[in-house]
Amino acid sequence: MEPVYVFGHKNPDTDSICSAIAFANLENKLGIPAVPCRLGEMNRETKFALQKFGVAEPRLLKTVSAQISDLTNIEKTFIHEDDSLRTALEKLTATKFSSLPVVDQNLKLKAMLHVSEIANTYLNLDHSKLFKEYVTTYENLMTALDGEVISGNYPSGVIGGNLKEISEVEKVQRGDIVLMAPIEEAIDSCLGAGARVILVACDENDHVLPRKGSETAIVLVRSSLFKIVGRIGQSISVSSILTGSSFYSFKKDDFLHDIRDMMKEAAQTNFPVTESDGRIYGTIRTKDLINFNRKKVILVDHNEKNQSVDGIEDAKILRVIDHHKFGNFMTEEPLNITAEIVGSTCTIVYNLYKDCGVEPDKSMAGILLSGVISDTLLLKSPTCTDKDVLAIKELEKICKIKNYKFYGMDLLKAGTSASSMSTHEILTSDLKEFPIKDKIFGVAQINTVDPLSILDKKEDLEREMRKLNEEYRFSLFILVITDIIQSGSYALAIGEDPSILEAALDVKLEDNLVWMPGVISRKKQIMPYIMSASQNFSQK
């Protein structure tokens, strides 16, 4: 069964990471293979929580875009370089492919063989020089002729002698292969000359005497001389006719959106695909890109495409667990949505444990507790509800934390020391994008017990914010510096029209900065008002 990837939003916070880990754990307990993931680097607060409760860091997921390995139609047939042309043609005919990959003994991709190359070889073949100009093996020759060895020892390996016909019996030399009619005298003459193999064209009524004691292999082929000559040409090894022409090939982990244009512009119609080590994986055509297995995902703590993993449009979303507003969210089929007005997604996940009759173990209870504490700022956030309060009290007992307030303060302090953080880290560790009408707002938040240590970097922050505005095309970038002790926030605004922030929150910026007492929730106390103010500005 394919795994289900569970992840939160980009620039993940503690609630996002912990809810993904805990819900994946619940899914696994219920028999559903789930893998917790993260869409970016974890902040210090989150690392503190995971280390405290001995929980492994989730894997980094960069994209869920469809890859070649997700395709439902991949031709797995390939041609060995030692195969005969007959075998190669049979494989091409069976697959209805005009070309197939050629591999060496280690299954490493070596070339592409097109049916036209086999046809051209047949047209230009000089049988008198066949074993001089082309390589083949005794095994391939026997397969092509479907002969019966009546005496002698049929050899193996690469053919070293020349091909002689009945008219050239007097020219036979040691090691040659001779094709003749069932004429006893001629057979004896070839035996005397040291022929390696004697191919006798005969019908069902012809009788040829075995030669006991002779090493020369006498092979009866029930067909006419004319047909046998054609079959001998089919025994040539594929390696003999490879031209070394260049061709496109892909790795099985390549993304479909990266190879589409290349396939359309290429002269070839079939494209070999390899494993990462160069071994053959299969062959694909342009029309195969239509059907692929979508990666299964569960979104926690977000629902908007711009906050989710790259390539989300290629994925199959099974479920959404969130406590945010829903925006630009559309799926191709129904799905399970669990959305509640609570302060933390971890509160929702904990209640899902209870709904399923599963008690989280100590470590899962610990990270769930950490997520609720983080997102509600130790229950001080206006987003906090009675459900969050109850979750903290119950989780505190399960994970055996003596006092959630003491642990909570340690947790928040672990993530609020900005002295060693770069301006880029401060601005991007918890950055969210909010598209409103024709504008995009970037709003970053950092919680701290020492806001002045961050404001000391104000000029550097403003410079970096201008760069991020250009990179992400933000109309306005707002950094919210939340003082946990004072229960308020500074807002630093850089962009086209900071007056939107002033109108939204009824404040006055001074040198791009303002203190907002009692404002600590980006989701509930800042963004709804900015969205409303933006609508009013667009109507003027």
- CATH-scheme architecture of the largest domain: Alpha-Beta Complex
Give me the secondary-structure category.
alpha/beta
Output the radius of gyration: 37 Å
Largest β-sheet summary: 6 strands, parallel
**Widest sheet: strand ordering:** 3-2-1-15-16-17
Terminal CA distance reads 55 Å
Quaternary structure classification: single chain
Mean pLDDT: 92
Individual helix count: 18
List low-confidence stretches: none
| Global outline | elongated
Number of domains: 4
Offer a few descriptive terms.
alpha/beta; five-stranded mixed β-sheet; Udp-n-acetylmuramoylalanyl-d-glutamate--2,6- Diaminopimelate Ligase, Chain: A, domain 1; 21% strand; six-stranded parallel β-sheet; inorganic pyrophosphatase (n-terminal core)
